Amino acid sequence: MKIKRISIIQTLWITLLIIGLADVAFTGETQQQLTAESMIEQALKRGSLKVGMSTFVPWAMKDKTGKLIGFEIDVATRLAKDMGVAVQFVPTKWAGIIPSLLTGKFDVIIGGMGILPSRNLKVNFSIPYDYTGMSMVAHKNLAAGFNSLNDFNRPDVILSIRLGSTAVPAAQKFMPKAQLRYFDDEAQTYQELLNGNAHAVVGSAPKPAEWALKYPDKLFLPLAETFTKEPIGFAVRKGDFDSINYLNNWITFVRAEGWLQERKHYWFETRDWENQIQ
Predict the structure, then answer these.
(1) How far apart are CA 7 and CA 11, in angstroms?
(2) Which of 106, 130, 156, 173 has its CA 20 to 30 A from that of 233?
(3) Which of 35-44, 111-120, 129-138 has the lowest mean pLDDT?
(4) What's the pLDDT band for 270 if we cut at 50, 70, 90?
(5) Do residues 133 and 204 make contact, with C-beta atoms less than 8 angstroms apart?
(6) CA quadruple 186, 237, 256, 41: dihedral positive or negative?
């Protein structure tokens, strides 16, 4: 009887050991599968990082030779270099950039994308690598004397805005009575203002200020400062925690060495790059 009881106990221990080893093996296999499927792993195997972006001066634009330059171009190029892979830019219209990421047309969005709860339901974001805010540039004749958001919050005021940008919810929140006119491209948005068909453009700083400097006879800045503050992050497909971990630590690293601040100063606080596009 005693021998039989010992045999049962031994069988039970062996069974538990087998289950434990199987569980460890399954966990390891699952982790390897997740790692193998991450965007970072795919880019390393491919030898290139596919970056979704949209032209938006001075974030991303073409120089006189047709080469892409700008703050986001520098960030994506440095990221790919640190990964030891080539960078491949995939220019995409802003309104369709998240659907394009989700369908696998590129690996990551590096395009000055604001971290919004509504976007976060569709994609995962890194920690912020930059901050921006909403600003305005107005038409000197149509908006003469305007110097506050209340001045633009009227039914007879037309605001020109880039479709799909964070300027849309900002304008809807702070100037709900104004008429909003949407455009796919940034250039169309500002051309509408120059043509006198809109009172102002709502856009991310420092772009409105650049247009006011470029056309001082037609445009002016009605507000002294930005009226929002928005964190900017990299966007990847949901569930890719390995890539988010890498991107977060990369941002922390380049910020600590001062590189991000140096590139932002060059593109947003100087005009030293203008001779590359003119």
Answers:
(1) 6
(2) 173
(3) 35-44
(4) confident
(5) yes
(6) negative
199-212 pLDDT tens trace: 999 998 888 988 88
Give a three-class secondary structure readout of 116-179.
Answer: CHHHHCCEEECCCCEEECEEEEEECCCCCCCCCHHHHCCCCCEEEEECCCCHHHHHHHHCCCCE
Which value, in Å, is the radius of gyration of the alpha carbons in the chain?
A: 25
Q: Cα–Cα distance between 46 and 44 in angstroms, integer?
A: 5
Q: What is the pTM of this model?
A: 0.67
Strands 230-232, 130-132: pairing kind:
antiparallel
Cis amide bond preceding 117, omega within 30: no
Residue 5 in this model has a pLDDT that exceeds 80: no
CB burial of 82-105 (b: ≥16 within 10 Å; e: otherwise) equals: ebebebbbbebebebbbeebeeee
pLDDT at 24 (0 to 100): 46
Which among 202, 206, 221, 190 has a CA at the least distance from the CA of 268? Answer: 206
Contact (Cβ atoms closer than 8 angstroms) between residue 137 and residue 208: yes
User: 193 and 213 in contact (C-beta within 8 Å)?
Assistant: no
Reduced to 3 states, what is the DSSP secondary structure of residue 206? Answer: coil
> Hey, what are 135's tokens?
């600003």
* pLDDT on residue 185: 86
Residue 20 scores a pLDDT above 70: no
The H helix count followed by the E strand count for the chain is 11, 14
pLDDT of residue 27: 43
